[in-house]
Design goal:
Subcellular location: Cytoplasm, Cytosol
Number of strands: 21
Family: Belongs to the Rab GDI family.
GO molecular function: GDP-dissociation inhibitor activity; GTPase activator activity; transferase activity
Keywords: Cytoplasm, GTPase activation, Transferase
Radius of gyration: 25 Å
Number of helices: 15
Protein name: RAE2 geranylgeranyltransferase
Length: about 600
């Protein structure tokens, strides 16, 4: 591949169009060394690897504007590759915002966990400073310092018509887009955030708080109150509902101290348990779909309570919701780890395919790989992403699929005074037996789309093709009419208009047991691609498990030493250039409108 991250990657708009074309044509990679099998010795055998990616299927893209107008339009602002250790991505944004922000300091330690949900969600009427150095007013949610802003200044005329965005503008501003193949958010107390802090990889990235948790009920999108302040300021809930909700959330934080309240329902679903708690239907809907974010049909009571507690415990650490999103997209995360690896001599090779694993017949261990030049690379351990394994190697493996859609729209699914919102919405199943759909809407200040547009990701476990799974949800939330079509219903005018969309199915190889790959030698470890969950816990657990199997006495991702203090065995330390020759291309700088109104939240360790 010529990009970082595999199925975790992010693309500019033109890059995504090239990726779509490649997947639709199912291009095979030609062997540059056709006689590589002659390089295998008599006491060796080979396990062939795939030379094309077969994890993506049913790719369909649609343009809801005049594509002819974009035929002669070129992408603006194409930049040459950066020299080694030049700034790119979030690092460039940090320098751009440096003059407008105060130094990041942890002026107050993080609040300790408490049985009161208010302690997890800015309950008091005072200002607290999050670990990213931003001071928030608990009652209003407005940031008191330029660091980690989550709200833009209100627009002068919130009811004004959205700007008309054309397809040719999207193509021209294609480098403003950073479109993720997989859509996830980071729980503020999740395993990935802890790992980024522990390993110091967090210094290579910046994050933005998700500003809203939404719900879809009775045909309308509503904002869900998360913190105590949100609950008691909410106009959607009656006073009785507010007390009932706070009482239930407090119970979820302390559920281990009150086993008698849920033990009789452990064999029943969480939805049935909620029905016994005197909660109104609207409260049950909020808790099930927007706080616990679990399945109504098959989530157990205990799993639902634990999911609710996880949501509450993540509140207030960096902002008013439990979630963070990395500026420039999820594809920044694997690049950040590559940067840290490069600092200490690691090499990440782009456009460099591998033909096969070379196995010693006597020991049964893998001893080397052969690349497409016929070069033999020896090692003691080999970690292979599942998509590289051929069908003959995976004949006993049964894969799940993920349905994905990416939309570019002209306005938010829930308009407010601020246009700069990062929202998450969990859509209940359209039909019984269908999965719920996770919808993440990103604004331009996340550096993932151009100004006056929104990037919307939809994800769910597959039951059919991605378009069949997700288009009913898209039709409920968005207007799919083209500019040339006459809109006949007023509600279609009010909905955000989809400008461009792509649907595809992605393989979910998480949860596959190692014994399923019975043909692989013991020193070959298989890692999966992305899963359908909202967070990244599965990938972090898998990486740590593989590392501990290889190096049981070593610490996983310890705090790295200062590179200047590292003593190398060789006379000359390895050139820093070697690790960053394949550094990702520069990202576009934030526009004045984006840079001045939104600051990135830095993830910093606790004091």
């Amino acid at each position: 591949k010529n990009y970082y991250g595999g199925n975790w990657a992010s693309f500019s708009f033109s890059g995504l169009l090239s990726w779509i074309k490649e997947k639709q044509q199912k291009t095979e990679v030609s062997d540059e060394c056709e006689d590589w099998r002659k390089l295998i010795l008599e006491n060796e055998e080979v396990i062939s690897l795939n030379n094309s990616d077969k994890t993506i299927e049913h790719v369909e893209d649609f343009c809801f504007d005049n594509q002819d107008s974009a035929e002669d339009v070129e992408e603006a602002g194409a930049l040459s590759k950066l020299p080694p250790f030049a700034t790119s991505g979030a690092e460039g944004a940090a320098q751009e915002l440096e003059k407008e922000t105060i130094p990041m300091e942890n002026t107050l330690p993080e609040k300790a966990a408490s049985s009161d949900p208010a302690s997890a969600a800015e309950g008091s009427e005072t200002e607290i400073t999050s670990e990213c150095g931003s001071s928030h007013n608990a009652a209003s949610g407005e940031p008191a310092s330029p660091i980690g802003k989550t709200e833009a200044a209100p627009s002068e005329n919130p009811a004004q018509e959205p700007k008309k965005i054309t397809y040719s503008q999207i193509v021209r501003e294609g480098r403003r887009f950073n479109i993720d193949l997989v859509s996830k958010l980071l729980y503020s107390r999740g395993l990935l955030i802890d790992l980024l802090i522990k390993s110091n990889v967090s210094r290579y990235a910046e994050f933005k708080n998700a500003t809203r948790v939404l719900a879809f009920r009775e045909g309308k999108v509503e904002q869900v109150p998360c913190s105590r302040a949100d609950v008691f300021n909410s106009k959607q809930l009656t006073m009785v509902e507010k007390r009932l909700l706070m009482k239930f959330l407090t119970f979820c934080l302390e559920y281990e101290q009150h086993p008698e309240e849920y033990q009789d329902y452990e064999s029943r679903t969480f939805a049935e348990f909620l029905g016994t708690r005197k909660l109104t239907p609207s409260l049950q809907h909020f808790i099930l779909h927007s706080i616990a974010m679990v399945s109504e049909a098959d989530c157990s009571t205990l799993d639902g309570i634990q999911a609710t507690r996880k949501f509450l415990q993540c509140l207030g650490r960096y902002g008013n919701t439990p979630f963070l999103f990395p500026l420039y997209g999820q594809g920044e995360i694997p690049q950040c780890f590559c940067r840290m690896c490069a600092v200490f001599g690691g090499i990440y090779c782009l456009r460099h395919s591998v033909q096969c694993l070379v196995v010693d017949k006597e020991s049964g261990r893998c001893k080397a790989v052969l690349d497409h030049f016929g070069q033999r690379i020896s090692a003691n351990y080999f970690v292979v992403e599942d998509s590289f394994l051929s069908e003959s190697t995976c004949e006993n493996v049964c894969y799940r699929q993920i349905s994905r859609a990416v939309l570019i729209t002209d306005q938010s699914i829930l308009k407010t005074d601020s246009e700069q919102q990062v929202s998450i919405l969990r859509m209940p199943p359209v039909e019984r037996g269908q999965p719920a759909v996770c919808v993440i809407e990103l604004c331009s200040s996340t550096m993932t789309c151009m100004k006056d547009t929104y990037l919307v990701h939809l994800t769910c476990p597959s039951t059919k093709t991605a378009r069949e799974d997700l288009e009913p949800v898209v039709q409920k939330l968005f207007n799919l009419n083209t500019e040339t079509e006459k809109e006949t219903e007023n509600e279609e005018v009010e909905k955000p208009r989809v400008l461009w969309a792509v649907y595809f199915n992605m393989r979910d190889s998480s949860g596959i047991d190692r014994s399923s790959y019975d043909r692989l030698p013991a020193n070959v470890y298989v890692c999966s691609g992305p899963d359908s969950a909202l967070g990244n816990d599965c990938a972090v657990r898998q990486a740590e498990a593989i590392f501990q199997e290889m190096f049981p006495t070593e610490e996983f991702c310890p705090l790295p030493p200062n590179p200047e203090d590292t003593v190398y065995d060789e006379e000359e330390p390895p050139s820093e250039e070697s690790g960053l020759d394949n550094a990702p291309e520069a990202k576009p700088e934030p526009s004045p409108e984006e840079g001045s109104s939104e600051g990135g939240a830095a993830v910093e360790p606790e004091q």
